[in-house]
Amino acid sequence: MPERLSALEGAYHPGLHGTTDPAAARLSSSERRGLSVALVSCFPEDREAVAATLRELVGLELPAPSRAHENEAGALLWQGPDRWLVVVPEDKRPDLVRTLRDAFADRPAVAVADINHARCVIRIAGTKARDLLAKGCGLDLIEESFPAGHCALTRFGHQAVTLHARAREEIDLYVTRSFALALWEELLDLGAEYGLRVEEPLR
């Protein structure tokens, strides 16, 4: 199988932005690589069957609207009524899409879209993570309004993104591959004010 090429290849350079002092960097950014990602959607009458199958296959529960369920197995992110992103480590589930399609073979109204190559996932972490994202996003991102475990489909600048608050100071951004480089460069520019450290890619 050909190796998947990151959308940020050629522009991803670990190091400091906005400061030369590592201790002064109040932000970090990194790309999450090595993920299997599928979009599962269904009609309401199939929701319980989808919930049971995902619970059995990936150990995750369907989240409530604007929520995510995450554990050591991966994450389920709400994407709209009866639509969820399934995100798991590729080394644990390289056959995720095929497994899900086989599991729902007798339910033609359940759709499983393979978006392994269609999304880039960028993690922003640090004490100024929410301040940085507030520069380009119209959502209220204070912790009381967007606590850990929440997710939202929104915009950052001109790019459509899904935000997943994993912790108070850690938020993942899911963006379509074709806009990933533009988003990455914008995050670096806006984050330089706080001192930003680009980390090695996460796997």
UniProtKB/TrEMBL annotation:
Highest taxon above the source species: Bacteria
Source species: Aquibaculum arenosum
- Name by which UniProt lists this protein: Sarcosine oxidase subunit gamma family protein
